[in-house]
Amino acid sequence: MFGRFNQVARHLTRPLPNLAQTPAGLAASMTSSAKFFENKTKTIHTAACLIIGDEVLGGKTIDTNSAYFARWCFSLGIQLKRVEVIADDEDEIIEGVRRMSANYDFVVTSGGIGPTHDDITYHSIARAFGLPLKLYQPAFERMKKLTKPHPTQPDFNWDEPSSALTARLRMIELPYDENIDEDKQSVFVADDSWVPITTVNGNVHVLPGVPRLFEKLLDGLKEVVVVPRLADPAGNGSYRVLISTPLPESTVAGYLTDLALRVAPHGVKVGSYPRWGKKRNTVTLVGSDKDYIDSIVADVAQNVQGRRVATEDEDDPPSDTEAKQ
């Protein structure tokens, strides 16, 4: 069986990138073992998310993964610094992933790892760091075990070359650093899924774009990779207080400016959000020091003539329909 598999793999796996012909300046970005492990083990303070897909930019699909990732980061106390949506374009992916990897502690990409010609995320990220692609054997074995035959492919054979097999193998040809143990570069976080999360340059984690799968794998990644590296290993996350005020932003702007400067040394951010068409606006206090934030809530509420609420609409008057019920 393995002899036939090797023949299939040689026949179907795409050629490795020719590093001598990589774009100008790309060689300087090539990953190293030292950089990989430095990025993979350092404390996670900041994060970024790169959404890849023409369908998002074209309005065909609504991106929900970045919103899920934002809530995920907030719950863990990670500062999400940047979210970008880019096309299925090799140069765009290379530029974006290299910049994010250099600037942020924890990076996820979403999308572009399917079986079709426009799914170029693995290939592009490999080129971004001067790496070849390699068929990941553990993923292949899980794929065979967990994938059900499609009714439109009754003659599909895992051991015989075919266009359908070529398409499937595209999804498990991963960026590979031959100087690093293979199992440290990819991880499975769901027992019922063959999809690996591959890590490049130590801090770039490549996830699928399908929301249900993205969410499942991201949640699985939390316990395996993220929690041990949090600034607060207990995972208490960020703390947010909402204060409802009847005053317009222009009235409270001066006070909030002074407040923001006063609380910044405590790691607290002050926000102000107008609610168009409503009678009340919202002031927020966000940070990791719950006790300190709670200690200033009463003073803030007094100065904006408001009160603490659980939801933004808590103090809204009932609608006409609700009033008649």
UniProtKB/TrEMBL annotation:
Residues 304-325 are annotated as: Disordered. One of its GO terms (molecular function) is FAD diphosphatase activity. It comes from the Eukaryota. Residues 48-229 form the MoaB/Mog domain. InterPro entries: MoaB/Mog-like_dom_sf (IPR036425), MoaB/Mog_dom (IPR001453). SMART domains: MoCF_biosynth (SM00852). GO terms for biological process: flavin-containing compound metabolic process. Pfam families: MoCF_biosynth. This is MoaB/Mog domain-containing protein. It comes from Talaromyces rugulosus (Penicillium rugulosum).
